[in-house]
Amino acid sequence: MPFHLTDEQELVRTSVREFADAEIAPLAATLDREHRPPLESIPKLADMGILGMTIPEQYGGSVSDYLSFIVALEEISRACASTGVMVEVHASLVSTSILHFGTEEQRQKYLPDMAAGKKIGAFCLTEPGAGSDAGALASTATKEDGHYVINGQKIFITNGSFAEVFIVMARTSDQPGTRGISAFLVDRGTPGMQIGEPEVKMGIRGSSTTPILFDQVRIPESALLGEEGHGFKIAMKGLDGGRTGIAAQALGIAQGAFDQARVYAMERVQFGQPIAKLQAIQWMIADMSVDLEAGRALVYQAADLEDRGQPFADAAAKAKLFCGPMATRVTHAAMQVFGGIGYTDAYPVERMYRDARITEIYEGTNEIQRLVIARSLLR
Q1: Domain 233-378 - what CATH class?
Q2: pTM of this prediction?
Q3: pLDDT tens-digit series, residues 300-328
Q4: Cα 123 vs. chain centroid, distance in angstroms?
């Protein structure tokens, strides 16, 4: 059935789109070209209340419904996918995990600064031997004299080069699989924590993606997030909401490419008329529009279920499974509308085409989403 945003949610879209067009989009090409994160945007995102949209007012946030945050994330990603994933990991994965599983002391310590943009969050789960099989992680956290000592290596950590607070998953017992995994809050600069050089990537080049080495990193027992042995549960809870966020990022990338292609088709003249008059172009524009509407319905449904306290993991997996490939299809079609000039960096579609591909991989590959969906149907 049709999904209608409230007046307040439409206002979020309008205000964030205006902000993104004015403050984020002009930086996108430079961030991509220079492979640098959008650090100058962080204070502006905080002033807009976007970094605190998942944080209650009592902790300095501007908490609203999750669907409003998803709409904001879509609009940011429409302008710059690298900025979008920075916000998604910070606000959806890290802030909400601290809010839901942290002690009051932990919430007071981190959330006000996170809402204000003074501390950006990073989520440390993936390892060289533990990608889709997160239960295979080998990092350890051993109790010693009222502390935990963390050893291990993490890879592909979004926001790694500049984050101030890291949620780190490590094994606290010899129990097999996921049962021995716990979560910890580790501050930047803790002795023994070494942040490596950012990866050089095909897309989202303005997103800092780093390896991190933990060598005898000593943290207090109070840094445990949730209970011992509950780390995998915390990670999966965060990733469920994060998948809706990445689906929104994919949706925003696709919308940005569609907007560019539609305008170009009406302006570009060939054979004595705008190419928008050609049936081949019309069909591509039509298919792109259908893809966008279908993706938006799935994304908004997942966010709405979370807002209403209903099970949403299956809906989030469906939204991500559809929107990742959809973004790839739409950006591909947009580049085709532009023709040869679209293959250069003269227009944003070239960057969007590269940015789209990762949405089929991180925070759960398409194959993992299919497993999540199938398990919910066949249990």
Answers
A1: mainly alpha
A2: 0.96
A3: 999 999 999 999 999 999 999 999 999 99
A4: 11
